[in-house]
Write a structure and sequence with these properties.
This protein is an alpha/beta fold. The protein has 2 domains: about 200 residues, Alpha-Beta Complex (2-enoyl-CoA Hydratase, Chain A, domain 1), CATH 3.90.226.10; about 45 residues. It is built from 10 helices and 10 strands. A 6-stranded mixed sheet has the order 1-2-3-5-7-10, with helices on both faces. A hairpin with a 2-residue loop joins strand 1 and strand 2. The longest helix has 21 residues. The chain starts with 10 loop residues before the first strand and ends in a 10-residue tail after the last helix.
Length: about 270
């Protein structure tokens, strides 16, 4: 079994039963993002996307929070420190970091899940939204948070939020920065499931395991179809789906599923 070494205690990684679990591990800071953590997470996501023995990715946070977003204390130190690098250099570094995490998560061709034990704020909310699905504890809440600290947003949150709750809902949540409870998040579609704090991780891992041991090629094609559905017309969507359906018919997983149906047993998928 392959293994990813994050190189830091700020990001833990474990692979079991084809599920890669990343744990943001700065509980004393509510898992606020720091350069060491984001660098490791970007590398980890890239590794998981390519690892043959990883079928699904789960991201969670240590302690009582998922991720509080940017480290506001560090922002204060940065603003009072020495002269910052040129704006263009800052822009390129920021864009690269956001693409390595939010962009890579959204584009990953394996199922991704965010498990929120508590607060998902700012960039933490954006990272959760970049995953395919979200599950949270009944004590969790989500907030865009940016307006509260005089910022406009990052990690693609406006794009992601608009696609999850629609333009009107995204405007309200971004401009107000209000808290969204677990129950309201479920109603709005910000999360797919709500469970107790005690059961969160076990339920999330079991959910991820179902996807990790499913038909990997079909999952990838389904994600491609869903992504294209946002911007192509209906005839083009039908054309693309037909092409991918024919390709998926040639997979070993499809043949196994047909055989299992005939033999009245559960299929054993290998992602091939």
């Amino acid at each position: 079994m392959s293994r990813f070494d994050s190189g830091t205690d700020q990001l833990l990684c474990e692979v079991k039963d084809r599920v890669c679990v990343f744990t943001l591990n700065r509980p004393d800071a509510r898992n606020a993002l720091a350069p060491e953590m984001t660098g490791a997470l970007g590398r980890g996501i890239s590794w998981a996307a390519a690892a043959d023995d990883v079928g699904a990715v789960l991201i969670t946070g240590a302690g009582s929070a998922f991720c509080a977003g940017g480290d506001v204390k560090a922002m204060g130190a940065r603003n009072s420190g020495s002269k910052p690098p040129p704006m263009e250099k800052q822009f390129q570094a920021l864009k690269a970091r956001h693409m390595a995490i939010g962009g890579a998560l959204y584009q990953m061709r394996k199922p991704t899940i965010a498990a929120l034990p508590g607060a998902a704020a700012g960039a933490g909310m954006a990272i959760a939204l970049a995953c395919d699905m979200r599950i949270c504890s009944d004590h969790a809440f989500l907030t865009t948070g940016y307006a509260r600290i005089g910022l406009s947003g990052d990690y693609g949150i406006a794009w992601l939020l608009t696609r999850v709750v629609g333009p009107a809902g995204a405007r309200e949540l971004l401009l107000s920065s209000r808290r969204v409870t677990a129950d309201e998040a479920l109603t709005l579609g910000l999360v797919n499931r709500v469970t107790t704090s005690e059961d969160l991780l076990s339920v999330a891992i079991e959910w991820a395991r179902e996807f990790a041991n499913g038909p990997g090629v079909a999952h990838a094609y389904i994600k491609d179809n869903l992504d294209e559905a946002l911007f192509v017309d209906h005839p083009t969507a039908i054309e693309k789906e037909a092409d991918r359906l024919l390709k998926s018919r040639t997979t070993q997983d499809h043949k196994e599923a047909v055989a299992a149906f005939a033999e009245k047993r559960e299929p054993v998928f290998k992602g091939e």
